[in-house]
Amino acid sequence: MTIHKKIASRAILALAAVTALGAATAQAAPIKACLITKTDSNPYFVTMRTGALAEAKKLGVDLKTYAGKYDGDNQSQVSAIETCIADGAKGILITPSDTQAIVPTVEKARKAGLLVIALDTALDPTNAADMTFATDNFEAGKLIGEWAKAKLGAKAKDAKIAMLDLSISHPTVDIDRDHGFLAGFGVPIKDPKTFDVPDPQIVGHAETGGSEEGGQKGMETLLARNPNINLVYAINEPAAFGAYQALKSVGKTKDVTIVAIDGSCSGVAGVKAGIIGADSQQYPLKMASMGIAAIVKFAKDGTKPAASAGKDFFNTGTQLITAHPVPGVTSISPAKGAKLCWGN
């Protein structure tokens, strides 16, 4: 072999080695993903973030997390999606604050090749995301509505209901839970797409932002409108606890039944203590871990997750927790709920 051939041969071997090293490095690079929640203060979304980060660590995913400044902060979520696209993420998990306004930005991400999964709250339309992992929010609302109707018995027909909702934009989770509760209580829903359901039993609606402070202010406003309220629907547990504080300040805690949706450990304790009459439990850790796993699978072979049979989303389940079970409504005890709860 001539000197030139030896040099050429060594150069080829060196190039092959560099190429192989580059390929191995590229293969070893972690999959990038993003989690975008409504806020980073609500215990529900804090739990979701914790679960997503744990699953990401387990599967070797480089997960970046973002959150709105408040419930309803669409612009922060828009900015987060754009950052994720620019960073080369393979997928985005999002709990949308404004289920309609965020759609154009979600479509931009999907066109860029990212998998977009809505968690907890479906987009409007639902198929604007590749998939939704969520509680069946209508069913969760229906369970507490059915329980409340049975618990009040003959008094149900004369109930004065306070509706403590989420936000003025009324995302899908707001509509589904409201309508589910009212349907379970026996109030007819004439138009599933319209948030407002006229009925003489409803004293009024108040937007709480899903916070305890918002729940207290909302309850105070509705009590001023009608001090005879005897049933409170709360979008979540923080709003329910806020309502309880408002009722406590006027000595009405024993006269009013509160129902809510969440199932956190503090919420289950509230059920046990009699603060919340019934609580539909949901499972944010399951949503988050499934979301991360779905992004990994998509990144590896392009497979997208499938919906539950007969639904346009994947149902992560719900169970009613109450210390006062009623005939005809399946429920579990606070003790069992405590074994399944999340957060503090």
Would you summarize the structure shown here?
The protein has 344 residues and is an alpha/beta fold.
Please render the helix and strand layout as text.
Layout (H helix, E strand, L loop, with lengths): L2 H26 L2 E7 L5 H17 L1 E7 L6 H13 L4 E4 L8 H9 L3 E5 L11 E4 L2 H16 L8 E5 L6 H14 L16 E6 L4 H14 L5 E4 L2 H13 L7 E6 L2 H9 L4 E4 L2 H18 L12 E2 L3 E4 L11 H7 L4
Helix pairs in contact: 2-10, 5-6, 7-8, 9-11
Percentage of residues in helical conformation: 40-55%
Portion of residues in beta strands equals: 15-25%
Give the strand tally: 12
What series of H and E elements makes up the topology? HEHEHEHEEHEHEHEHEHEHEEH
Describe it.
- The protein is α/β, with parallel strands linked by helices and 344 residues long.
- It has two domains: 128 residues, Rossmann fold, CATH 3.40.50.2300; 168 residues, Response regulator (Rossmann fold).
- The protein is 45% helix and 17% strand.
- A six-stranded parallel β-sheet has the order 2-1-3-4-5-11, sandwiched between helices. Strands 7-6-8-9-10-12 form a six-stranded mixed β-sheet, with helices on both faces.
- Helix 4 links the parallel strand 3 and strand 4.
- Helix 2 runs parallel beside helix 10.
- The chain is elongated, with a radius of gyration of 24 Å.
